[in-house]
Every structure is written in C-alpha cells, then in structure tokens.
Amino acid sequence: MSDDALSRRTLAAQALGKIDAASRALVPPIHVSTTYIRDPDNAYRSGNVYGRPDNETAREAEAVIAALEAAELAYVFGSGMSASIALFLALPHGAHVVAPRVMYWALRNWLAAEAPLHGLSVDFVDAEDAAQIAPAIKPGLTQLVWLETPSNPLWGVSDIAAVAKLAQAAGARLAVDSTCATPIFTQPLALGADVVMHSATKYLNGHSDVVAGALAFAREDEFSVRVKKIRQMHGMILGPFEAFLLIRGMRTLDLRTRACAANAAELAARFAGHSEVAEALYPGLPQHRGHEVAKRQMRGGFGGMLSIRVRRGQAHAIQTAARIQLWKRATSLGGVESLIEHRASIEGAGSPCPTDLLRLSAGIEDVEDLWRDLDRALREV
Ligand SMILES: *Cc1c(COP(=O)(O)O)cnc(C)c1O
Ligand 1: which residue has its CA nearest to atom 2? Predict the structure, then answer.
C-alpha cells in the first residue's frame, strides 16, 4: 500500500510507521547529539553534520507534518513566530508583502514594525474579500501574499484558491497560516498555496506543553532552500525533546481536532441564541460572513475556535471570564483543555479586536460541562 493511499489519520497515528532500525523500537528514540561522526574518507554520508541544522527527531516530526499537508517537504522551528519570520527574511530586500488587516496579532506587529527594518514593505488588506486583495498585489514587486484562515480573533475566512490564482498571476507566492484550520479541516497546498505555516504550539502538539512552529512547502525550490539556510544560520530549529513531544501529540491530531470542532460547533449554535450574547463568531454558523467560503474550503469541520461578543460590553466580558470555573482563563489555543480569553486585553492599543469579545478555544471536555460553566458565568451579574 503506497503512502498516498493512506488517510492522514492513519499516517499520523503511526507517525508514518517508522521503526528504529537498531533496537526495533516502535517509538523511535530521541536524538540528542549535537554532532555527528565524519566518515574516514572525509564525507558526511549520513547527511548529519551539526545540531544547529541537523536533527533526526526534528526530521521525523517534519516528515509527519509534510504527510499531513501533502507537502514535498516541511521544516520545524522553535515557534510559530520563528517559522513565519524565517519565511519573510527569505524574501529579497525591497520585496512587497500583502497581509491581512485581521490576523495573529504578534505577527501583524512584526510585519508592521520590524519587517520594514529588513527592507520589506507591507500592505494590510481585508483578506476576507478577494476583490480587495487583487488591487493590493503589485505584479513584479509583490513577492508574498500572507493569509490566515480562519483568522484570529473574528474567524474571518479567506478564499485560498481565489487568492492563490491572484498571487501566481502576479508572480508572487501564497503562504497560509493554517494553525486554526489544522491539516484535518483544510489543505492549503491542494488549494494552490505554496507554503503552509503552523504554530505547532497549538493543535499539532495539542497538549499545551510545547512551543513549536512549522513550514510545509508545496515544492523544494530556491525559496525553500533559502528558508532552510536562514533557519540554520539563525539557530531556529526545534529542539529534539520538543520534536519528540510534537510527534507524540500529532498521533491523536485527527481525534482531538474533530472533538474540539464538534464542541465548538455546538457551543456556537447555542451562543447564537443566548440572551447575553450579541454575536457568536464561528465559520460554521450560516450567518457568519465567511460561511460560504468555509463550506467550500474546509472539509469535515470548521475548527475548534470561536468568539462571542458579550451584549453588555467590555466590563461584563472581563467579569464573565473572571467568574468562569471549568474553562481556563489563559491565552493560546488548540489544547485538549478549553481556554477563554478577553482578547483585546492581550492585543493592546491599535488592535481591531472588539473590546466586548471573548475568544474561546474549545477543548475535548464534555460539551454540557463547558456550556453550563460559561452560561452560568454569563448570567451571573
Ligand atoms: C500562536 C499563533 C501564532 C504564533 O505561534 P507561536 O508558536 O506562539 O510562536 C501564529 N499564528 C496563529 C494563528 C497562532 O495562533
């Protein structure tokens, strides 16, 4: 049976079925060595020279991620931010970038404040409307279009296939932050994207105990080679213990993300009719702005992330988060435990996040327990 005949669920559950050749161990050992033996004839036939570029455990994690994204190759990084920044640093000096107005806040800040210091110019657009992206792409100058879908914290949906056509017609690459979509629900490369980014800190690892990032490339070319070189020179590779935990987490990716998405869908439907909720934001809701695109682009679910806008405003939103008991009041997302966050408090000044918004990362707990806790916290004054 060839690999492409196997489902993502099967490939991830067995971490591609790799067995340690020396010990016959079902779970491969963690490779911690920072250096490797040179062959007597002065070659490095193993392909491994030094720990900053080369680590076998990192490679095993990369092989699983590449399989999940049907990518030609993948690289793991010390965080989602370092993965993203490596990609931007690989662009030539003077390159133009198009990015969403609403996206992961720390990366948006980097693009606005730091990217120009590296010779990049960045335009921010309403990325939920391909018609608004088209005029922002400058043929010959724009090198990269960045999307995040569904996007933090309003869960806006971008049409990957439509934007891929626009980018490629102008000679630009399309990169997609697919952290919240997960490889289970969206396949950006199959829709025409060139690169997929994951904050593997989130769903890929899934247990809130590893900070990691990944880039999966449709093909190996001078750009992917440049990204790898930047990772090597800047020392951005993921450590072996983290890579091991990430592989372990990915074995249950399919089960976890489907459980999170089922809980999120049920909660979103209930909050849409809640007397204390002005609006429930979830791509799976028919009234959501991005629902039609999400239905075309996402398979099997709409992800585990949703937000609610509290009818009585910011103070009530913060009090609701304060009164919660079962949900954990914390930033981040994509773990097995449910998290709640008053998002505007962490994004700070200039953020497009409404101040009455609570961001919810649905975990895998019993949905009735999650509902009772949040419903009670919203109603208690
Ligand atoms: C967390 C996150 C990032 C950044 O990843 P880190 O692993 O925290 O560096 C980027 N994009 C999205 C959508 C995220 O949720």
Answer: 199
Cα 86 to middle of ligand 1, angstroms? 14
What domains are defined for the chain?
A: 3-250 (3.40.640.10), 253-380 (3.90.1150.10)
Altogether, the residues listed in the chain come to a count of 381
Pocket test for ligand 1, best of 105, 199, 238, 307 (most atoms within 8 A of CB): 199
Q: Which residues contact 40 (CB under 8 A, 6 or more apart)?
A: none
Annotated active-site positions, please? 52, 104, 177, 202
Report the distance separating Cα 98 and Cα 21, nearest Å.
46
Ligand 1 atom 1, closest CA: 199
For 59-99, the pLDDT digits (tens) are 999 999 999 999 999 999 999 999 999 999 999 999 999 99
> What percentage of the chain exceeds 70 in pLDDT?
99
| Per-residue confidence (pLDDT) for residue 348, from 0 to 100 | 84
d(CA 16, ligand 1 centre) in Å: 26
119 vs 374: CA distance, rounded Å: 46
* pTM (predicted TM-score): 0.97
Atom of ligand 1 nearest to the CA of 152: 13
Does residue 151's CB lie within 6 angstroms of at least one atom of ligand 1?
Answer: no
How far is the C-alpha of 247 from the C-alpha of 9, rounded, in Å? 13
Residues 6+ positions from 335 with CB-CB distance below 8 Å: 202, 206, 207, 208, 361, 363
Ligand 1 pocket check for 56: Cβ under 6 Å: no
Half-sphere exposure of 115 (CA within 13 A, CB side): 28
Q: Is ligand 1 within 6 A of the CB of residue 201? A: yes
Instruction: Give the pLDDT confidence of 301-323 residue by residue, as tens digits.
Output: 999 999 999 999 999 999 999 99
C-alpha 86, offset from chain centre:
15
Cβ of 179 less than 6 Å from ligand 1: yes
Helix, coil or strand: residue 116:
helix
